[in-house]
Specification:
Helix content: 25-40%
CATH class of the largest domain: Alpha Beta
Structural class: alpha/beta
Strand order of the largest sheet: 1-2-3
CATH topology of the largest domain: GMP Synthetase, Chain A, domain 3
CATH superfamily of the largest domain: K homology (KH) domain
Length: 172
């Protein structure tokens, strides 16, 4: 295994029309020896794997027969929206000179199930609390959320509203 590089970050390439591919392995680990012989004969446990990373333990939501201590796809979708917004937000803050000292999002989503058992998200609400260094930049810090939302790859990919209920505090 190679040691991570230290020192200044590499120069950012000019923005181009580029494609980026993302691949993961999702491996079912819930075969109890009976396969899927019945709805209750198997566990919903699985792992999400990517080269060079620890496996992410997954399952269904407990309401759908999963295990509470594992991440479910619905949580990971909400987390993806939150992560993408945060990463764009921090990038924009660095670019515009808004000194952010802390960022904590308490994101949530609503999934509605239909009579046939199929479901769909009706919305996700991102609720980041951003801590800034100076009261003079609160307005600028809050304005960055709209642009971060416009740039979010994941928010562009979903067919439901992603709302923002952000707050900004000033460090003491």
């Amino acid at each position: 295994m190679t040691e991570p590089q230290r020192g200044p970050a590499p120069a950012q390439p000019a923005h181009q029309d580029q494609a980026h591919d993302y691949r993961v392995d999702v491996v079912w680990t819930g075969n109890t020896g009976q396969g899927t012989s019945s709805y209750r004969s198997y566990h919903r446990t699985h792992e999400v794997r990517a080269p060079g990373k620890d496996p992410l333990p997954g399952s269904a939501d407990p309401v759908f027969g999963g295990e509470d201590e594992r991440y479910n796809p619905e949580e990971l979708l909400v987390a993806s929206l939150s992560q993408c917004h945060m990463l764009w937000y921090l990038h924009l803050a660095a670019e515009t000179g808004v000194l952010v000292l802390g960022y904590h999002d308490r994101a949530g989503g609503t999934l509605r199930e239909g009579p046939d058992g199929a479901g769909e998200f009706t919305e996700v609400v991102l609720a980041p609390e951003v801590t800034v260094a100076d009261p003079a930049i609160v307005d600028a810090a809050e304005a960055l959320h709209a642009r971060a939302h416009e740039l979010s790859y994941v928010a562009k990919a979903v067919n439901f509203p992603v709302r923002h209920e952000f707050s900004t505090r000033v460090a003491h």
